[in-house]
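Changelog entry: the Serpentine receptor class gamma record was regenerated in this release. Current contents:
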Amino acid sequence: MIFLLDTKNEIWAILELAIVSDMVFVPFIVQVSYLGCNKRNVSLLIHNFKLSKFLRFLMGINQEVGPE
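Regenerated structure tokens:
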């Protein structure tokens, strides 16, 4: 997202950036604080986290074989 700032649109661009950042960061902070409030959840998350598995999930790659 690129904002071209000039004198009359500068305030609106800053306001739009604030709104977009709120829409992204507030749910993330709420979820992280919820998951982090319980020691069992944190230990389970750390124990089962694998970067390669997470990246495959983000890219939509599924290599698991299931029953047909």
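The two ends are 44 Å apart (CA to CA).
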